[in-house]
Input
Amino acid sequence: MLISYGSDGMDGIDGMDRMDGISREEAYSIADDMAIDELMAKASLLRDSMRGKVVTYSRKVFIPLTYLCRDRCSYCTYRKEPSSADDIMLKPEHVLALAEQGKRMGCTEALLMTGERPEQRYSEVRQWLRARGYSSTIEYIADMSRFILERVGLLPHTNAGNLTLDEVEMLKEYNASIGLMLENVSARLMGNGMAHEHAPSKHPSLRLKTIENAGRVRVAFTTGLLIGIGESMEEVLDSLLAIRDMHARYKHIQEIIIQNFNPKPDTPMAHWARPSREYMLRVAALARLIMPSMNIQVPPNLNPKFDEFLDAGINDWGGISPLTIDHINPEAPWPSIDYVRSVTEARGFRLRARFPVYPEYISDGYLAGRVMEVINRMSDEYGLVRGY
Output
């Protein structure tokens, strides 16, 4: 089996620098003008030479610690208002029960999800946390991460919004990786009637600061773009280039998610159109050409013909749960892992399970000792999950 994490010696594609990616000027030039088939062919060839023919995914259990959030994104149905004391936070015994169920079903990742700093909006959250000895939601997440890692043996991955430097350091002790979607680098999307009008935490400067904090602490970091929320192609390119620039400084961004907006009933953006198939394929291919060696993911549950994205240069399907729904997109069930395997292999690739941290980041520099111990018990010689 070939798993390639570096160049195979080829010098480039049509003069493009394979290691650094195409320039800003080249990206703007080809984004709209190059035929989609040509763009995808270049991206696919580049992926094959940099990553080989292995496509990865993570077997995860999705643990929503709270649905409360201080923001009101125009497309979101994750956020809910509290209706009883039981709606404040998921209690430790329920967190551990979910993690244990996931472990029995072969999961290696526990995705811990919360809204953005709910304690800033809800007194009920502040009271709930204080009664249990916590001063913030992030402190509670860190403690639940410790329980999951030490008591169950799953690897936590936290997605809880913007984080300070101290909070990233706190989470690193028990998390294999941390995630935060940049979504888009354009502050224009904060304007009246736009996707992030009522979501102050989505300001690009705050999101970029969290990504930078993770780089300063040396945490393997997952980020990505949300496509179809009113952005222009130029803003897509600006966002990809901002991620590339940040990664060039800190070398810590392990994965880019290219996620399509999915309109949901009873939201301000319910009647917006989904991004087209060609637009999504074009963005995925551009991401590969801009960041040749990056792990690039498209969620299979949001794209019925997800295998087409293999032709656009991606190499990962993200987290797939055999147990829990996608709480961000509950209307979009996960395809079975067996089905993902069959369509992936039909395209000439091999599907392998990874950890929430990619193989190239499994090192003492990026992982705390207790996290490394758990990974070492489950990994094979490639840094992937043994037996999957």
About this structure: The chain is about 35% helix and 15% strand. The first helix runs from residue 24 to 33. Residues 12-378 form a domain with the TIM Barrel fold (CATH 3.20.20.70).
